[in-house]
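Chain A, query sequence.
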Amino acid sequence: MKQRDRHFQRSKKIGFSLLLIAFFLQAKAQNQGPAVEQWRSFLPYYQVNALAYDAAQKIIYCATDYGFFSYNRADGSMETYSKVNGMHDIGMSDVAFDEQTGTVLLAYTDGNIDLFKDNRFSNIPDLKNSSISGDKTIYNAVCHEGIGYLSTGLGLVLINIPKAEIKVTVPFYNGSLFATVYDALVANDEIYAATSAGIFKTDIDNPFIQDYSGWDKLSAQTFRHLAYWNGHLFASEGSTVYEYQPGSNVFAVYYQAPETVVHMDAASNGLWVSSNADTAAGHSYLVNGQGQKTDSLPCQSPAAVLAVPGGSVWYADNSDYHYPSNNGLRERISATESKSYTPDGPVAASSYDISAYEGTIWVAHGGYNDSWNGVKNRAMFSVYKDNHWKNFSWLSDNAWVQDFVRILYNPADGHTYAGSLTGGLVDVAPDLSFQNFGAGYLPPTYGSTDLFSVSGMALDASGNLWMSSNGGQHELTVRTTGGKWYGMNPVANNIGGNLPHSAADVLVDDYGQLWFMTTQSNGVVVYNDNGTPENTADDSYRLLRTGEGNGNLPSNSVLCLAKTKDGAIWIGTADGIGIVNCPGQVIEHQCEASLKAVQFDEYADYLFARQAVNALAVDGAGRVWVGTGNGAWLLSSESGDIKVVYRFTTDNSPLPSDNIQRINIDPVTGDVYFSTDKGFIAFRSTATEASETAKSSILVYPNPVPSGYHGMIAVRGLPENSDVRFTDITGKLVYRANANGGEAVWNGADYTGHKVQSGVYLVFVVSKDGTEKETAKLIIQK
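Chain A, predicted structure.
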């Protein structure tokens, strides 16, 4: 302790001018990434399903299946939005703009509603949270003079936009049941509603608007979409567009589309009719007053058309990752050409695995069902680097090279490995060239000759790549650093049920043993190759299942695995977590899983009992992240007691879904990536992997700390569990912290809880054993 104090006293003598010079030399490099405890979303913006237009500001607002973005035609700028920066939900079904108030209305499929104005969101959750049972889906939204009209499964919902509240709900009925309102519009001071009980009309100022029996019924036929053009009302059902003829009070056939009509939009010179089919490319045609096609758009899956004053035509293409060059917000250039104005993002929301290192993110988009069978997902995999996404969309002429469900970056050589459930291994070199390995390297899937499964991957201490296969001649294959391939001994057939040798994921413990889970709810296997992958004669294994003496797992349905800093193996199952604290003794039957009893609040139970634990990950401080169907948790162990550091759900965080499928951590930045069934998102945590030395890698950020900043100040790149002290320029101690792994954080307040004054501050770092010392500087602005 005296040695440390002498170090701090010597540091007081640093000249102020020299300190400022050193500070400004390094400060520019220390503004890296988001602040600690901040979120980042990674959304695909390609599937645009609705458009709205602010003619005064020349801004197009675009709704997508996952987020929301705007394009400014005046200056070409784009802005993206998500739950991270204010939205209250995901899964938009429509967007509308109210000219009177300058407000954008965001409608979600689950009945939630956001109003967006002056770059701020306000939420109207009443419909979503209503105790009324029934379909709360918002099918369509329009705005007129401060009122939003929402077509829902419970009726027509009117929103008072200035007051941000529901004004009234108009229920329509099919007998005693709610009639679904599919579409609505306002024209000539009249409201039209297309419902499952027919089309209705009323005056916009009807004082008894809530009583649908007072509305005029124009037709008993069910129509899905409405449009008003050239003084006429149009309605569609299936692939047919009808025109309302008031004199005879009938809807006559006006135009026959090639596929099912999904939207109709009025333009100055006709009616744009967009149609689509699951098995064919969609079409969008301009139809004139005689029901004849006069123009068309080059689209794949049209969702809406916007003909702006001045003649330019914009449209939303909702096609998926199969057609990334065709979808998004597009401007028509000619009948065969268009230009995209879509924010950069991943090609798909699916993220069955992520491997991140120093801010570069690799994502396996893949797919599988509950039985670990592929779903023919050809989104493949992507990489995010230098603020840009690149998708590997076509890897082979072999159609089975698909369903990539595992991905692993190797910092040692810069290679990335992507595993397909049916198409083998893809090795991506640092220059992004790649090679596919299947036949002759991996065992064919049971009953086939051309399917090669990679369902899990891990690197051992020597850099050998271990792979598990879901159904083959054996469960484990290794590719050595020398490029040799070896298959391990097969484990007993009965672990695979109807699919022999079924396995997924693979983990290497501190003893070099391989752990993998079965995909047919038969427990977890520990395999020891004895350090000789080329010689399987000396190999051994053990199967762990439920019951004392058999492994003592909480459930045979194993869903995930993780190794903690102290070498313990955590096993996530369909019924909580089992912990193996002595993995080196498992095969000799001298150790099995323990079921740890913990107390959360006033309740005590086994760790996550009766919950399916889908994901486990260990951060740089040795804390364990747990992903369930009810959100994510961060657990730390203090004196043997497990404490909850964070718990994140869709209610208290920007998580797109509570169904956490996988958790991965960037060891350098501390970013925690949560893969869900509705996309993935990152949280910058308070821990990173420790550095061997602080001298070459210490980073303080944000630096300088901007005025009004209320987040955490982080010191990264530290030796494990360092002692970190923050002082003013005179050397007076203002705060002291211990690093979480390789990172320490400070909230900018002194020990009394008061924010420190602006100025220059010193950071002193001393490693746990006292052998490493380093000083950094930061400035807090006024």
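Residues 54 and 646 are 41 Å apart (CA to CA). The helical segments are 2-11, 16-27, 126-129.
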